[in-house]
Amino acid sequence: MSENKLLSLLKQMTLDEKIAQLMQLATPFFKGAKEQGQITGPMAEMGVTGEIVQNSGSVLGASGAEEIINIQRTHLEENRLGIPLLFMSDIVHGFKTIFPVPLAIGCSWDLELTEKSAEIAAKEASVSGVHVTFAPMVDLVRDPRWGRVMESTGEDPFLNSEFARAFVRGFQGKELSTDVERVAACVKHFAAYGAPEGGRDYNTVDMSERELRENYLPAYQAALEEGCEMVMTAFNTVFGIPATGNKRLMRQVLREEMGFDGVLISDWGAVKEMIPHGVAEDEKEAAHKAIIAGVDIEMMTTTYVKHLKELVEESMVDESIIDEAVLRILQLKEKLGLFENPYRGANPELESEVVMSAAHRKATRELAGKSSVLLKNEGILPLNKEQKVALIGPFAESGDILGPWSWLGSRDEAVTVKEGILSKTSHLTVAKGCDVETITDAQVEEAINAANDADVIVLALGEDSEMSGEAGCRANIQLPSSQLNLIDHLKSLDKPMVAVLFNGRPLDLHGVLDKTDAVVEAWYPGTEGGNAIADLVYGDVNPSGRLTMSFPYHVGQVPVYYNHFNTGRPQGAPDAQERYVSQYLDIPNEPLLPFGFGLSYTTFSYSDLKLSRETMTEDEPLDISIKLSNDGPVAGEEVVQLYIRDHSGEVIRPVKELKDFRKISLEPGETADVTFTLREDQLRYHHSDLHYLSDPGTFTVYIGRNSKDTKEHTFKLEK
Ligand code: BGC
């Protein structure tokens, strides 16, 4: 349908029909849905009628080709102008084949596999009828108390931007209109949802505009540059105003400056939440603020359908603003080809073939292997298949390794650690040892019996999926005491111990790292988790994951992140006093494990850091090279990381900033020259007047295996 046809369709719509297009409700509200019929009560409570639903524009959370076809068919039979519905769902890290959680995916530093994981998720979702995914979530995160850090790729704006692009490419492909195996992406949550005060979900976000632009906006911008079709508003405030009613943020920053012209959707209930936030007296005022801010779709509250008409009649809202919102929604439907084929990729016959195929399982196993991070290894890993293993812990036989956003993933289909290890060796005894948050004497006794005869103890520990994700915040970020107790009991046996961790946030690992001989951070690894862990533990895969969020020494340090600023009284400065420096009296300033950290079964050495010149200009970039050698016994992959520091800026500059990286595979004994090119535009930052430019002066470039362990060289920028 041409733009003219869309405009003429818009002309035929009544004001009521237009407003209904802007409402998004969950699946059970729709005729043809499996659970339909149970909604009479909720519908009345929400103030909507069957007729309004019949005219609505989109559906939240439907999946399954048959159900979606049914809902669409019934809808089209009843909708006066035959306008198809858009089906939107949270397909965050896999549809039914579940990939590792995004924080784990970040640790892979593997953009190609990330893109592939999104492509597979899109394929499974689209064949099951979904048109739009509420992903990627690209919120920068620095506070591991916040339950949703596991939905982000971490604490670095450059890396998050690269991942944002990879996810969007994977979900949307190159030609969304003809490629029915892809889905439209909706980047979220705009903006700065990852910075709630105290790490408590939905809490206030208050930061300077410079900070917002410097660290938080780049990843959303990257997603938009990649063509991301939709944006979701955040629950939080930005500049003192909830994002969902923030006209300046949405109309000026997002649309005018960042160039977004797609559909903007509120987060769940966020329009009405402007009342408790304290910026709207009632639903009518909330609706007014949201539509003026440019929110096109209201998710799961009904202030628009209840009040927009009245607001137009009272000349509080110009009908052209509503037309604009409706047109954007119609344009997205057109882009997805829904006017020609309202069922798009939905295909019940293909569904069973595509979803959870062997190829998809293989891809998630590979990504899970690359996402896990080896945090410690005192020569105990990899295990050999002859060793007698006691596998102990609440995650030994648990399918709860998919993560909080895996609503369509089946725990029964997940490969447990026990199953993974059994595919490598039969020398295995298993005991639970404790539950996630409780422990009994009988469980301890069983664990000790299981371990008595073993050569090595493998502990499967962690947080259950309810302990992170949305509304899953914790003030104590250690493992629950039941599991720390279990470690203490088993430690008394004096046997080698390996801990494998399943969790959604960086933890304070005291009581784990210091008491075991090896630690593998497996995060929530997804459907093939157990196999991926066994691959790593037995050395069939050499660990290559590197942390993208610092692991604090203690929760009291939070937020603690590598790219922080210096103070006027830094620790360790030549003239530092003993007391009056920026420090804690009782714990170090440094995190326990830094950004970029991760071990391998082989040893990589770095030498010969060279710069092509000492001075960079706008037209003459620098080539920076280093020799990387695999000095160890096995092949492995290393993430070579390049950071810079701007010694003196117009405003203070981070002590280190990641600017580039390469993943390099080397055979034992092999050496590679790794060369980066650094340009002037990579040295730019937001000045106090918000202009984005670089300053001439001295810089240091660092290359190394993580943000702490680097080689360095200075250079000058001349302008
Ligand atoms: C979450 C969003 C999600 C939406 C729809 C909200 O509660 O914050 O991330 O996309 O629900 O499920």
Structure, described:
This protein has 719 residues and is of the alpha/beta class. Among the domains are: 180 residues, Rossmann fold (3-Layer(aba) Sandwich), CATH 3.40.50; 116 residues, Sandwich (Immunoglobulin-like), CATH 2.60.40. It is built from 20 helices and 26 strands. The strands form six sheets. An eight-stranded parallel beta sheet has the order 9-6-5-4-3-2-1-10. It is globular, with a radius of gyration of 26 Å. The mean pLDDT is 97. The structure holds beta-D-glucopyranose. The site of beta-D-glucopyranose has 6 residues, from loops. Beta-D-glucopyranose binds next to loops.
Largest sheet: 8 strands, parallel
Find the count of extended strands (DSSP E, 2+ residues).
Answer: 26
Q: What is the helix tally?
A: 20
Architecture of one domain, CATH level 2?
3-Layer(aba) Sandwich
Write the CATH homologous superfamily of one domain.
Glycoside hydrolase family 3 C-terminal domain
In CATH's first tier, which class of one domain applies? Alpha Beta
Mean pLDDT: 97
Strand order, sheet with most strands: 9-6-5-4-3-2-1-10
Task: Bin the helical content.
Answer: 25-40%
Show unreliable segments: none
Write down the Rg. 26 Å
